Amino acid sequence: MDNLTLTIIGFSIIFIATTAGAAIVFLFKKDLSDKINTLFLGFASGVMVAASIWSLIIPSIEDASDTYGSLNFIPAVFGFILGGLFLVLIDKLLPHLHKGTNIEEGLKSHLRKPTKLFMAVTIHNIPEGLAVGFAFGAAALVGSNAAFISALGLAIGMAIQNFPEGVAVSLPMKNATGSRVKAFLYGMGSGAVEPIFAVIGYFLATSLVAAQPWFLSFAAGAMIFVVIEDLIPDAHLSSHPHLGTWGAMIGFVVMMALDVGLG
């Protein structure tokens, strides 16, 4: 496949996978059990950690070598921190309910509870979209088909973890809205932000070439922030430690294998 086709597929599958997961609401009458939820969130954590390392931080350091020499770790360090600060800023500004605690965060508003829950998930899908966009932007700068296939590996990994994420969004939304259709639309909508920010990330990476190492590590920092602040606490590892741990380990090796195998 040509590079444009690979890019379109990469930007599309991250949204399609979330939508497919959200559609599960039409098949299940009850929420996910605590054990399945722990396994899903552990898996998503593992995927995001591995993607942050192999697809973002390591390429960031490698890309910075020509400009920064022996100090090639500087963009990775500071970009990583900026990614975390970006999520903190978003949390402070956008009104939403923290998914695990249902505590209101962001600016005061009169939004309904389902909308605030939707905002919480949508906020934390932004880093995934940026990561995919930055990866394809980096591939465009290299120009080789192999680079685009490597970027597609990251998109596939994000899509794999987006399916259970879509499930985890739509089923609780069914209880909050009282409607399967609304729950599905909320779940699908939460994933729509990913291809949007993938496009933004792509054009940033291809327009500001010198900032590419910073962009990659920025996306990594934002994703790790989501893992530590949301996914791991919401997984309730204290209740099901082995399930969550094995879920994370399986997610990690799946993403690592995709990245190394396709890279």
Tally of extended strands?
Answer: 2
Strand content: under 5%
- Rg result: 18 Å
Task: Order the strands across the largest sheet as they lie in space.
Answer: 1-2
Largest sheet: 2 strands, antiparallel
Tally of helical segments:
10
pLDDT < 50 stretches? none
Question: Cα distance, first to last residue?
Answer: 16 Å
Shape: globular
Helical amount: over 70%
Category from helices, strands and their pairing: mainly alpha
Sequence of secondary-structure elements: HHHHEEHHHHHH
pLDDT averaged over residues: 89
SSE blueprint:
Blueprint lengths: L2 H20 L11 H30 L1 H4 L5 H20 L2 E2 L6 E2 L7 H11 L2 H17 L2 H33 L2 H28 L4 H23 L6 H22 L1
Antiparallel strand pairs: 1-2
